[in-house]
Amino acid sequence: MTKLFEVPLYPYRYSPDQDAPTPVRHPVVIVGAGPVGLALAIDLAQGDVPVVVLDDNDKVSVGSRAICFSKRSLEIFDRLGCGDEMVDKGVVWNTGKVFFGERKIYEFDLLPEEGHKRPAFINLQQYYCELYLVERVRALQAEGKPVEIRGRNRVENLVREGDHTLVTVETPEGAYNLQADWLIACDGAGSPVRKMLELDFVGRVFEDNFLIADVIMKADFPTERWFWFDPPFNRDQSALLHKQPDGVWRIDLQLGWDIDKEEEKKPENVIPRLKQMLGEEIDFDLEWVSIYTFQCRRMEQFRHGRVIFAGDSAHQVSPFGARGANSGFQDTDNLAWKLKLVLDGKADEALLDSYGVERELATDENILNSSRSTDFITPKSEMSRIFRDAVLDLSEHHAFARPLVNSGRLSVPSTYDGSPLNGPDAAGLPARTRPGSPAVDAPVGNGWLLDKLGGDICVAGFGCEVPERMERQGVCLSGLTVSSGEISAQLKDRYLGDAEQAIYLMRPDQHVAARWTDLDWQEIDAALVKLLAREGTVQ
Question: 110 and 214: one domain?
């Protein structure tokens, strides 16, 4: 049977750029058609920013790879126009269980409160995620949006020229050159772009290896995340089990450091390990096997002039916690609107410096959490192991110990505290929606708040009327009025607290920029100028 990742989805096609007498210049060129590069391309194209995606492949990735897509990623997919496809195909889950040896010590709910459109997580093979993103690109092309994927177009060389980058591209029909006003590297952990610029990661590589196996089987395990410390089938190590669509299960098994990776990946060695875990009576087929090493590293700077890095090309974290692809989507969510405003002449180029400030801060947060997870999962000393095992024992009967258990603190979006884009914060409003924080969803009428905010700069009036559309400081804004009668209990709790009304200035990535309890357009204008990273006074 032909598998999805064997079918070219964006096959090589001749481009007129290849015979142009001088290199054709494009506003944005993205290197890499993985999930992060595709998400960025869609976001830009929806804003009518012309974008070309170059990829040395012509099909989706092999194997499930990233599978856990967080609530925040699903909210981003909604804004990109493909959230329903992801959720409809994915396996929805909110519950996780932690085991120590053969016994379950406790379970947790990642979304215990009501009033959210999307679940805490879905499990979905990366190749499906890429498929739906490619299909969304095709839909945008049908609408006449300026987006193009060029398969089997491998970037061979880069020359930075001040206000653009000259890119040499190799194809089956020979090489050609093009120019990019902005070059965005979304080309993965081994990023050729990063290497061409002689840049590198800083951080830690942990001395441990993990086997990933995608297994096709019929099993009655519930739709939950199961994590084992020191299970009987993998003594002194750890294991993880996730359900995926199509009867595929993801199994992660800790192997230790001193191993022969090629030997461990052979089916004759993998299958006995899996039988120990699943039982001899379970029939299964291997779909994909890989081995990974924990790495918690990042580039020192994500922006290098007119070359910007996003996703795994900019940072790597351990897979426990699902912080890899999810943080990559948050990178693109942060970057796309800033690029558009700069290209449209609505914001100073300095706005792009805030991408580095905010996403480097978020990466440090992810690396800290991933490093702590790794240290807890794989203790580096006997004393550390004694402490860990005592915490696990206590957690079975005592709730106070459970927050200390770290089987991979799961991905949550970062709050950009201290961002140079943050404006005023009114006293007395709920802390969880302060400036810099991601907007929290809530029911509004017969819909959802995040859907109504959309992807523009938005002035939201809760219990206060604002215009539906307006132009201020040379920028078109949308307005959202939620009348007092439409304010749900969840929205009041998350955005107003004890206040009768609140006005929020929302960024296009649905992070809060500023908020007030009284409507003052001069204050909003001043916050808007700060959000656009402009110098000078309010117009």
Answer: yes
Helix axes 324-343 and 35-46, enclosed angle (nearest 10): 30
Instruction: Tell me whether residue 538 is in a domain.
Output: no
| Helices of type H across 243-319 | 261-264, 267-278
pLDDT computed for residue 154 by the predictor: 98
Clarify whether residues 163 and 267 are in a common domain. Answer: yes
Nearest to 153 by CA among 183, 124, 132, 173: 173
Pick the last residue of a domain from 349, 381, 414.
Answer: 414
| CATH code where residue 76 lies | 3.50.50.60
Query: Distance between CA 275 and CA 139 in Å, rounded?
Result: 44
> b/e map of 285-323 (b: 16 or more CB within 10 Å)?
eebbbeeeebbbbbbeebbbebbbbbbbbbbbbbbbbbb
* 473 vs 476: CA distance, rounded Å: 8
**62-84 pLDDT tens trace:** 877 889 999 999 999 999 999 99
Report the run of H or E that residue 364 belongs to, with start and end.
Answer: helix 353-377
Integer Cα distance of 261 and 276 in angstroms: 20
Q: Which structural domain range is residue 460 located in?
A: 431-531
- Pull the structure tokens for residue 138: 């095709």
Beta bridge partners of 379: none
Q: Indicate whether 200 belongs to any domain.
A: yes
Check which CATH number belongs to the domain holding 462 and give it: 3.40.30.10
From CA 54, how far away is CA 13, in angstroms rounded? 12
* Whether 369 and 514 share a structural domain: no
H or E element that contains 1: none
The tens digit of pLDDT for each residue in 460-495 reads 999 999 999 999 999 999 999 999 999 999 999 999
Q: Which helix (H) or strand (E) covers residue 483, if one does? A: none
Shared domain for 151 and 181, answered yes or no, is: yes
Residues 262, 368: one domain? yes
**Strand pairing category for 174-185 and 307-309:** parallel
Which of 359, 385, 414 is at the close of a domain?
Answer: 414
Q: Taking each helix axis as running N to C, give the angle between helix 353-377 and helix 324-343, from 0 to 180 degrees, rounded to the nearest 10.
A: 180
List, for the chain, all residue ranges whose pLDDT scores fall below the cut of 70.
Answer: 1-2, 321, 535-539
For residue 468, give Cα distances in angstroms to 34, 444, 461, 538.
36, 16, 11, 22
